[in-house]
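Supplementary Methods, section 5.1.

A reviewer requested that the exact input to the structure prediction be made available. We therefore reproduce it here, unchanged from the version used in the analyses.
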Amino acid sequence: MDTLLEILEDIRDDVDFENTTDLVDGKHIDSLTVLQIIAEINDEYDIQVPAEEIIPANFNSAKGMWDMIQRLMDE
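The structure derived from this sequence is encoded token-by-token as follows.
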């Protein structure tokens, strides 16, 4: 999870990824930022985030992203 937080901070250092739970719904990040996050996650964790996983629930918090990463790594 620490690596994920570092990735997120590199992309947007003005957002509190550790504590915010409405990143998408609260418009703290936009669709282009989500795409950047997906690209970095794909590279760092050697997974592919499928289109059906690109939903607000998976990107509203760092924990949501981490849970999605863990699920995709287990597949």
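DSSP finds four helices and no strands in the chain. These observations are discussed further in the main text.
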